[in-house]
Amino acid sequence: MFIVASDFKENGIRLTEKFNTLKNKFKNNKMEEYTESSYSFIQLINKRKKPFAIVTILAILAAAIFSSAWFIKPKYKSFAIIYPSNLIPYSQESASEQMLQLIESSNIRNVIVQKFNLYKIYKIDSLDPTAPIEIADVYESNVEIKRTQFESIEIVVLDEDPNRAAGIVSEIINAMNLKARALQRDQTKEVEVVVKNQLVQKKRTIDSLNNCLHEIRVKYQLFDYGMQAKEVTKSYLKAVGAGGRNMKEIDAMMRNLEEKGGEYYELNKTLDALLNSYNNTKIEYDGVLRDLIKELTYANVVTQPTPSFKKAYPIRWLIVLASVISANLFLFVLLLILDNKKK
Question: Which pTM was predicted?
Answer without folding.
Answer: 0.62
